[in-house]
């Protein structure tokens, strides 16, 4: 069985069958990484297929979210998705841009939702609104291991409070 040495998104499998000191690089494709990032949104968040998180989210996954709870591991992702669905039952995310380089994928997306249950201390308003956000995810060995998510939290709070009247 070959020995695998992991360096970020590249895997080197030493050729131990002869005297040559040769390593064969195996690089996860950018398209594969983009598809994985898309699956998180489409399957876990849009289709409520929470079990998919166990397949594509590392148990060591860590989000670096600004202004909202930090999410850890596949269980954290499942809990966050369930919490969002309970508050915004019609939540749907549309990915506007998906850009990748190396082991990172950048998403620019738009959430459309109706606030029907209390969230972050705000009573439900029954109003529908949209929020845009951006996220960078890092992928290792075919799983999300880290992410950085940014959204205008103050605008989100204004929507939750009912202060923003336009859609």
What characteristics describe this protein?
167 residues, alpha+beta, three-stranded antiparallel sheet, 4 helices, 8 strands, 39% strand, globular, disordered N terminus
How are the SSEs ordered, and which strands pair?
Blueprint: E1 5-7, E2 10-14, E3 23-27, H1 30-46, H2 52-56, E4 57-65, H3 73-87, E5 92-101, E6 104-114, E7 128-140, E8 143-151, H4 153-161
Parallel strand pairs: 4-8
Antiparallel strand pairs: 1-2, 2-3, 5-6, 6-7, 7-8
Describe the structure.
- This protein is α+β, with helices and mostly antiparallel strands and 167 residues long.
- It has four helices and eight strands.
- The chain has helices at residues 30-46, 52-56, 73-87, 153-161; strands at residues 5-7, 10-14, 23-27, 57-65, 92-101, 104-114, 128-140, 143-151.
- A five-stranded mixed β-sheet has the order 4-8-7-6-5. Strands 1-2-3 form a three-stranded antiparallel β-sheet, with no helix packed on it.
- The longest helix is centred in the first third of the chain and has 17 residues, at 30-46.
- The radius of gyration is 19 Å and the shape is globular.
- Mean pLDDT is 85; it is low at 1-7, 9-13 and 20-26.
């Amino acid at each position: 069985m070959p020995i695998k040495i992991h360096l970020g998104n590249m895997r080197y499998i030493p050729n131990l069958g002869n005297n040559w000191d040769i390593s064969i690089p195996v690089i996860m494709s950018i398209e594969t990484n983009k598809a994985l990032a898309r699956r998180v949104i489409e399957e876990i968040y849009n289709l409520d297929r929470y079990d998919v998180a166990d397949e594509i989210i590392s148990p060591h996954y860590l989000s670096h979210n600004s202004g909202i709870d930090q999410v850890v591991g596949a269980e954290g992702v499942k809990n966050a998705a369930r919490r969002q669905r309970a508050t915004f039952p019609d939540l749907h995310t549309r990915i506007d841009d998906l850009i990748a380089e190396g082991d990172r994928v950048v998403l620019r997306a738009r959430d459309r939702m109706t606030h029907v249950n209390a969230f972050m201390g705000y009573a439900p308003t029954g109003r529908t609104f949209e929020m845009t956000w951006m996220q960078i995810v890092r992928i290792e060995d075919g799983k999300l291991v880290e992410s950085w998510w940014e959204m205008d939290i103050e605008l989100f709070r204004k929507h939750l409070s009912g202060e923003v009247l336009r859609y």
